[in-house]
Amino acid sequence: MEQEAMQTFVMLSENVEQKVWDIAGKLWRKSKKIREEPPIDWLPYLENRFINQKEFSFVNAFQYTKTKEERDLIITYFKDSAFKTIVKVVQCVYVVKEIEKFLILLDDFVVEDMSRIKHFNEEVEEPWKAFIHLLHCSNNFVRNIASRIITKLMVGHKIKRPSSRQTEFFLEWLKTEMNEENKYLLSVSRCLQRLLQVDDYRLSFMNMSGIVQIINLLTTGIKPQAQYQFCFCLWVTTFNSQLAAELEEYAIL
Q: What is the superkingdom listed in this entry's lineage (predicted)?
């Protein structure tokens, strides 16, 4: 019963992802603006040997694709190196405007076809680790778009999952972002909506008093959409009896 319900949640998540993205406030508005900016000049990365010729050819062609069919074709053509190149590029780009542009391109690529997450996990060892350093970036947009991608990589494969230490680090980061002054709060709640569908992540979040923080946050003046998304987070945790019992203590159920 629970497994069937969770499968339904996953399907709903994929179907409404773009709708949620469209109402995700500041993150969406800035993403739309960045998409309209000129493409990245990858030639300096090739000339300075950050990437090789094959990697340059892939990433340059990748950013000019316009349709899902074109992107599928590029991925197929560079099938032995495409996902490894994406991870390498994420780790070597340090110009803020360029990493912003590339992360949006990558997030759109994943949202367009969530099965690509499976390929990421199959082609790259612990792919989420390539994005963790971006959570320390001083740029709020970069941190939050990176967190979206990390979340998808963490939930996109049923077997390959981060270590408990990696999981706790990311959940703790999300927890610190949970405050009513955060202009990217809707993005934070969306990450939690996905992560808390996985029982191991639910328990880790409970152990760091994350559920209590959600309850406290709901008593503040956050906007209705944020209230809805955090209420969903509470609801999905009730599929774990231990967490459901904790919610009963707060008279939530």
A: Eukaryota
Please determine, for residue 198, whether its predicted confidence score (pLDDT) is greater than 90: yes
CB 171 within 8 A of CB 182: no
Residue/partner pairs of 176-183 with CB below 8 Å, 24 or more apart: 177/144, 177/147, 178/213, 178/214, 178/217, 179/217, 180/217, 180/220, 180/221, 180/222, 183/25, 183/26, 183/140
Residues near 202 by beta carbon (within 8 Å), at least 6 away in sequence = 196, 236, 237, 239, 240, 243
For 152-168, the pLDDT digits (tens) are 999 987 788 999 999 99
Can you tell me the distance from the alpha carbon of 151 to that of 148, in angstroms, rounded to the nearest whole number? 5
Residues 6 or more apart from 117 whose CB is under 8 A from it? 110, 152, 153, 156, 157
pLDDT in tens, 28-37: 888 889 999 9
| Contact partners, residue 113, CB within 8 Å, separation at least 6 | 68, 72
Nearest to 109 by CA among 41, 63, 140: 63
For tokens 């971006």, name the residue: 134
% residues pLDDT > 70 (the chain)? 88
CB-based contact 196:237 (threshold 8 Å): yes
pLDDT band at 19 (very low <50, low <70, confident <90, very high): low
- Which residues fall within 8 angstroms of residue 135, CB to CB, at 6 or more apart? 143, 146, 147, 150, 170, 173
Indicate left, alpha or beta for 126 from its phi (over 0: left) and psi (-120 to 50: alpha).
left
Q: Are 156 and 149 in contact (CB under 8 A)?
A: no
